[in-house]
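So, can you check this one?
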Amino acid sequence: MYDITNCRHGYAVYSMTNNADENEIIAIRQKFNDDFTFIKAYKTGGQGTGTPIVDPLGSQGSIVISDDGHFLFVVNAGSNNISSFKITRSGTLILADVKPSGGFLPISLTTHRNLLYVANAGNGSSIASNVTGFHIDENGMLTEIIGSAKPLSTVNAKPACIVINYNGKKIAVSEQNTNLISVFTVQQDGSLTGPILSNSSGPGPFGSVFLTNDILLVTEVGINALSSYKINHDGTLSVISPSVLNFQSATCWVSLSENGRFAYTSNAGGHTITTYEVERNGRLKVTNITYSTNDGSGAPIDSGICSNNLYVLNGNEGSISVFFTDRNGRLIRTEVIRDTQLPYLGSQGLAILCLPKRY
């Protein structure tokens, strides 16, 4: 139904307001060789936290799109639930379901085929950090998977990102408070075993992305770096490139080019984006650094890649920067979308979808 590898016909861009009274998804569309246009604000049926800061949830992956492009999922951190939407061919959304997240303060999501997993941050004391899984049916309805609710390493692990690998067998969760990475194994029925705990190469593991089934990239906000790991069969991690520094500030979020050759980290404190070259074996090196906005004002947070375009949400001004990525991974800024109708401070999450030929 959807052409998610060829974006010549345009894009749909989604972010959320995280408003405390009523969380909403903001949808923006671009037709090929045309300007971006606001579609609509869609109520999620839940509440955000309403925190007016650059990164209100302290996470990556608060909005994700299903592998086939049919559904969008979003956390409602203020009401402890998650919402699913059907995505139409024109990029508009239809609310499909709202379900409790299986914990307190859901902040990050990951999906594979008909499975969805959420990392819940907990309240730091009586309600523990955990991971919970859901089955997704053909209409976008969510059903919690028995045996999928698993605690992280400690009550107050403070997860920042949950990601699943390409074959859907391993899940990795970065824990800020413990400097650990928890790895779970996904069983045939979607239930989880684990976690197996490994030390982060550097302090403050945050954003994560899988390069292949076995190679994981994780940012480190404590020292502003990116590390790569091999996930072993038993769930342990072996470091490939340890803590490759970019000498920026607040390196938290990471996106991977579709060919897997380049990773892009958002450095909110430095208002920049770092390009890392990624070798086939997972080794990393910094190749370029660029400002998120023309004047260097934007503080980039969540990001997403579709085809040869990188999109970055600027958390301090509610704008979205758009870059073309050339064959060498270099970023060429093409536009900064300022009329997004997102809050100036407090928005979160970004997901991109290629639109079909006719819409």
